[in-house]
Amino acid sequence: MRVYHDDEVDDIVEVLRKDGVISVPTDTVYGVCARCNSEKAQDQLRLVKHRPLTKAFPLMCADLNQIKEICIVDECSEKIINKFMPGPLTVILKKKDSVEDFVNGGMPTLAIRMATSDVLKEIITSLGEPIYMTSANQSGEPTCTSLEEIEKSCPLLDGMLDGEVSFGEASTIVDCSGEELKILRKGPISEEMLKDVIL
Hints:
The protein has 199 residues and is an alpha/beta fold. It is built from seven helices and ten strands. It has an eight-stranded mixed sheet. The protein has a two-stranded parallel ribbon with strand order 1-8. 40% of the residues are buried.
């Protein structure tokens, strides 16, 4: 399986444009990604991970402007995004009507992360759309911790981007789609830290 490096962004983007699936390092774990505006790409990602149709994929955006293109960002959630992203945080936001139902199974919300490295931001920006981002493993199994494990666990990948990950705690997930913030998964960013920003 081909291993890409940081200076081969154009080649990685070409694979993604053709609905391929690539493994990439993030700030917390190795992830696998595909472009979000293609049902075929999503199908390929599900095939790589054996992930059921009932589970939607989180999206990774390049920056706040790209988040605003697909989600409704109110004053509270914008403060949180500006303070903690990019970083180990996933925000749940109401999606805009312009987002196709297949992107998240027709649900009213999207789970959003922001690019956690310069190379991921460059990939997303060059691609011109957000990417699905999910952990590199078979659905329900432990996350892979090396390129060797990824290749063994996900042999249907179209390539892997080399790089370091911290193997830290999984991201905090906060639901910003309702009237009150709800922590759906505890992580490095605590409820107190989040509330300090919006009070």
